[in-house]
Each structure stands twice: as C-alpha cells, then as structure tokens.
Amino acid sequence: MLDQVNLNKKASKEQAKSELKRLEEELSLIQQEIKKEKLPVVILFDGWGAAGKGSMIADLILNFDPRGCRVISNAPATDEERRRPLLWRYWRNIPEYGQIMVLDRSWYQDISTARVEDGLSRETVLQRIGDIKIFERQLTDDGYLVLKFFLHISKKEQKKRFDKLEGDKNTEWRVTETDRRRNRNYEDYYRAFDEMLEYTDTPNAPWHLIPSHDRTLAKLEVYHTVLTSIRKALAQKAVPQPAPGKVMIPQTFTLVKMPELADVPLDNALGKDEYNRKLKKLQARLSELHNVLYREKIPVIIGYEGWDAAGKGGNIKRVAAALDPRGYDVHPIASPTPSELAHQYLWRFWTRLPKDGHVAIFDRTWYGRVMVERLEGFCTPQAWHRAYQEINEFERVLTEWGAIVLKFWLHIDQDEQLRRFTDRQNTPSKQWKITDEDWRNREKWPLYEEAVNDMLRYTSTDFAPWHIIQSQDKKYGRIQALELIISAIESRL
To answer: What is the pTM of this model?
Structure first.
C-alpha cells in the first residue's frame, strides 16, 4: 500500500491557507452535532518517527472543545498493562458516546514496530491482527467512527528531519538512539508497516495514507478526511436500521451441544454431613491451587448467571472462602451506570478483567445483553443478535491470553423459585433480597427460558463451554461448582 503514496505532491500555499481556514471553522462547528447525536469518534495517528504526528494532533485538537476531546499518547506497555490481555489498555480508554478521542500511536504499535523489535512469530502477528480487526469491528458496529491515519515519509526525509532536530539544543532530546536505529533499518520497518496496513485496511475502518513531506498538504488531507467522515457517520445514524431476521451464528467457533433447560434433571441432593465433608475437602484443594495459579500467572474468570433466587450469592461465597483475598475480586453486575451506558457494552467487563494469576468472579455477566436487555428492550434487536458473535470473540481473546473461563448457569424450577421468593418475603432478615422486579421477571419465565436456551446454544464453545449447575438443592450446586473449578484448573496445570 505504501508504494501507492505520492510523496512528491505539494500544496499551493495561498489556496491551502484559505481551504484550511474553512475546514477549521467547520470542524469547530461539527463537534456540537457529534455531541447531540452521541457519535463516538476515534482518530488514531500512526506512521514514521518525525513524520509529524505530534504537530498534526496539536493542530487538529485546536478545532475542538477540550471538554469533549481527549488525547492519549501510547507508550510501550507498562508492567501493569502486560499483566492483562493485549487490548485491555485500549478498551479502557475508548471514548463515551458523543466524545472524540485522538491517539498518538495505538494498538498498531503491537504489530508494527513490535514485530521487528520483539521478534514476534508470524502466528502471533496474525493473531494480534485478528484481535484488532474484531476490536475495531465491534466498535464500528456499535456506532463508533474509527479514523486511521498513517503519515508517510521517505527514509531520506526522515533522516533529514532527525538531523535538523539534533542540530538544535532545544530539540535534540527528541531524537533517540531507537529513532536512529529505525531509520538505519527503514526497509525492515517499511515491510512491517506495509503488511500491517494491507491486512487491517477494512471497509468499516479503512486506512488513510497521508504523504507528509509537505506538512500543509498533509494537514489539508487529514482535516478534509475527518470532516467528510464525520458528516457521513452522522448521516448514517439518521437512517433506520432494518430488523434482523433469524439469528445466524458464523461458523467460526466450535460449539458444544447443550441440553434444553427443560431436560436438565434437578433431583440430585446432598445430606448435610456429606456436604460438609466434601465442602471442606474441595475448599482446601482450591486454596492450594490458588497459590499455584499465582505462581504460574494463570488468570481465572468465573461468570455466574441463573434464575433469580437460584443461589448465586451462596455459591460464590463458598468459592471465595477458599481463595486468598489478595488474589481475587467479586464483581456484582447491576444495571449499568450512566458512564457504562455511554460505552460499548463490553467496556465495563474489559475494565474489570483480573491480572494474570488472579481470579475474577462475576455475579451476572456480559450475557445480560442476550437476556434481560433482549427481553426488556434495553438494546436494539440488531445489537443482541450481534452479541452472540461478539461474546464468543471476547471469550476467545480471554482464553488466548491464557485465562481459564468458567460459565455457570444456576438452574432451578419454577416451584422452587416460588418457594424461595415466599420465604424471602416472609422472613424479615431476607426481605432485602426480594424486589418487585423479581416478581415481574418471574411472570416472564417462558420468555427468559427461551432466551437462556438460545444463549446456551450459541455461546457454549469448546474453549468456554457452559456448565448448568443443578441448584434445586443449594448444597449440591455449591459442590458441583467447586468440582468444576478445580477440574478446570487441574486440567490446565
């Protein structure tokens, strides 16, 4: 792709001055439309050292109100960031709806300069490319505008700019030995950049290659592209989306066949003595394994879903009791906050991922999108239809990172739920556990059962299968969950 860039183009100074003034005025005005229509905008700049990324960003953001625009400069990952999945630090910073985020370098440094300097295998590079394309597609499917600029200069021009910077005592610090080495090995980086651009130039997030020998021309092209793209995105938001048809899951995952909820037996039970004996033994074993997980830097993510009053809290409590409190977190997932509603729905789960060697337990999960959000109309049909694929992709990224992902559906029948609801309502110390919403959800049991069966059918993958916990007898369900967790950890070790 880079060989198609004409580096000899120059701008007419007088004409460029007039055009830039017009574009700056329009960029300043369009930010109000971005805010009004809640259009999230991501503008990233990549390219050669000394190609002008910093000055381009500095000039561009002068056209925006800083209260609605944020600049992030991405340095190499910190030790903290390296303990999370590769894209964790980028997911954390995606802008809210109606905001603009400008990136000085981005996730692309992990497949361009890192490819040359860290000796990444081709398999690793291709995996990272796939993860990045999924990340960008999930953002654009959610309504984000992702603009990608690559500022291109020749090896000779780059050396010339480095020499000029070094010739001034006020700017010589800006040129490092790494910069000089990259210039000497320009051809190696050229090949890495060129393949990166070719593999990640997608219809939803295309690359814009900017010839940057002439700084004025480069600014003109960037401003024009930003303005045109924002206008197009705003126009698309006004077009109603057609209702989706039947749920179609692309055949990119191996799915594990799951039973219908109605076919799951619920007659297993444990006596008190047997329960206490097994509980003590299993908790002791899990406590041992937690130390090994920390030493081996293996993260564990456990997601709990289930019927209201199915015993999620008690089940989680027995698991957590076996863990070192310094090495786990329990995340109770309630209705999203205003800030969470203003982001792509997976954002609030990406931001809660554990460090390697730690355990994260989710009391309700990202599956709310295909259950309560689906049934209560909190998201569009297009959004929850898409979510099966997005969730599978999310969990595959987690397992490729090295996480053990366990997903539990705690199952009871309607009669048992009614008994537990009534007990809660009639027991003063338990009344806080029962709400009007619980009773309303109970009336929709058939609809929820259909949604849960779809969830199990479409998201039980060979790398993150569902486990149906028979929680009609809470003691049996707790032992079943502990055994599954221990088995999964032992299998990995």
So the answer is: 0.94
